Amino acid sequence: MSDDNNTAAVCPWCQTEIVWDEEIGPEETCPHCFNELNDYRSLHVRLDGDDLELTDDDDDDMTELGGYGLSVKKRLEQQEDALECSRCQDEMVLTGTVTIEDGQFSPFPAGGAAPAFLTPPFKLNLFVCPSCFQATHTLSDEDRVRLVTEWSKSDEDLDS
Question: Which has the closest alpha carbon to 144: 127, 125, 157, 126?
Fold first, then answer.
């Protein structure tokens, strides 16, 4: 009876069983999906009875990152808006608002009878990605409504 631990593995990406030749040794890439078969983005889980325990080689980093990840998760559960990071596609955390007053923003001059697209004062929601720390602004809900209302009125004025 042979030792299956040395001759077979499961690809964490495509869940395909990989059997390798004992003379050659373990595969470095999956022959089915061609992803790397190392510990990159891998989570090691040790099941011991009813307890689930996460393991990592560097327990100090795991504790720090685990606390950070827990804080991020709580924050994401509390926020209503969900925004995906354009860089890494993780969910971004709403960190607060930025108020733009007169003198801090110069609207681009509009041509013809059209009003400027956005005039101060207005508020921006600031989102930060917890993974790559990309920051993104979105217009606040109140100012979105104000913008649409103002532009709807100006469109009616142009039609008359």
Answer: 125
pTM of model > 0.90: no
Going by their DSSP bridges, the two strands 51-55 and 44-48 should be labelled as: antiparallel
For residues 4-23, give the mean pLDDT: 71
Contacts for 155 with CB less than 8 Å, ≥ 6 apart: none
CA distance linking residue 17 with residue 8, whole number of Å: 7
Strand partners, 137: 126
Which pLDDT belongs to residue 3? 45
Q: Whole-angstrom Cα distance, residue 8 to residue 2?
A: 11
* Residue linked to tokens 């930025």: 98
Q: Which of 46, 21, 43 is nearest to 6 (CA)?
A: 21
Q: What is the DSSP string of 31-54?
A: TTT--B-SSTT--EEEEETTEEEE
Which amino acid would we find at residue 131? Answer: S
pLDDT of residue 45: 60
Residue 50: band (very low, low, confident or very high) from pLDDT cuts 50, 70, 90: low
* Phi-psi map region of 77: left, alpha, beta (phi>0 left; psi -120 to 50 alpha): alpha
Which DSSP helix (H) or strand (E) runs through 95? strand 93-100
**Both tokens assigned to 99:** 């108020």
Give the three-class secondary structure for 97: strand
